[in-house]
Amino acid sequence: MSLRTVRIASAAVLLTGVACVVSEIAFQRTKRGTYVSLFYMALFAITWIVGVVVFIRSVRKWRSWSAILGGLLFITAAVSYVAPVFGVKLRDRDFATHVAAMETTVAQLRQLPDSVLDTLRFEPVPPALRDVVYRVMTQRPRRGELSVFFFYGGMMLPPRHAVWLYTADSSATAETVRQGGWRIARPLRAHWFDVQD
Question: What 8-state DSSP symbol labels residue 141?
Answer without folding.
Answer: S
